[in-house]
Specification:
Oligomer: single chain
Shape: globular
Order of helices and strands: HHHHEEHHEEEHEHEHEE
Radius of gyration: 18 Å
Structural class: alpha/beta
CATH class of the largest domain: Alpha Beta
CATH superfamily of the largest domain: Phosphohistidine domain
Length: 207
């Protein structure tokens, strides 16, 4: 029962994000931003920008955040960094990347042949058009809008999800090799990485 409840929560969150997308798209349009820029804003920045009809944060900063950023919590207060602190953290992360690569594992939602291909990370539906046939889809979690990319994918990797999640169900229907629950595939892997996905062992190896 607990497992079902957790899975239901994952699915509910995925569909909620899918349906709220229209609100985000309209808000981004009113502020003259792209969807990716808008979702890189903090709630307080969104509120201030809409209230004053003027951006409360620089567009270049939003572009940096979307590419990657570091969220810090100090004495109960949080702030986002894309500068020196982020770069120091990134350097430490890269230095330990080789070791982390060996530990990237997931649960097989559908087992298939050993698959090798290039990583293509997708976090929202605006990025789906750029996905090419034979690439390996890497994403936090899929939803119905991801199906076109899933059809083209040689294999699918997700950070989250359980055996009844959207990615698991669709991959079984499509007979696509799929590993779910890798926890940090979108953080360890980079676009263009050539990887080997072994769904029989539940492992991912960077070549």
């Amino acid at each position: 029962m607990a497992g079902y409840a957790l899975q239901f929560t994952d699915e509910s969150l995925a569909y909620a994000i899918h349906h709220i997308r229209g609100v985000y798209t309209e808000a981004a349009k009113r502020l003259g931003l792209s969807y990716n820029q808008f979702v890189s804003m903090r709630l307080t920045e969104v509120q201030a920008s809409l209230k004053n009809n003027k951006l409360a944060v620089n567009e270049n900063e939003l572009n940096k955040r979307y590419h990657d950023h570091l969220l810090l919590v100090v004495d109960g207060e949080s702030f986002i960094d894309t500068g020196k602190i982020y770069n120091k953290f990134l350097a430490r992360t890269k230095s330990g990347r080789a070791e982390k690569q060996q530990g990237l594992k997931g649960v097989a939602a559908y087992e298939g042949d050993l698959v090798r291909g290039k990583v293509h990370i997708i976090t929202n539906e605006n990025e789906i058009k750029s996905f090419k046939k034979g690439e390996i889809l890497v994403t936090p979690m899929t939803n119905p809008t991801f199906v076109p990319a899933m059809r083209k994918a040689a294999a699918i990797l997700t950070d989250d999800g359980g055996l009844l999640c959207h990615a698991a169900i669709v991959s079984r229907e499509m007979k696509k090799p799929c590993l779910i629950g890798t926890k940090n595939a979108t953080k360890i892997l980079k676009n263009g990485d050539v990887i080997e996905v072994d769904t029989n062992k539940g492992t991912v190896k960077i070549l």
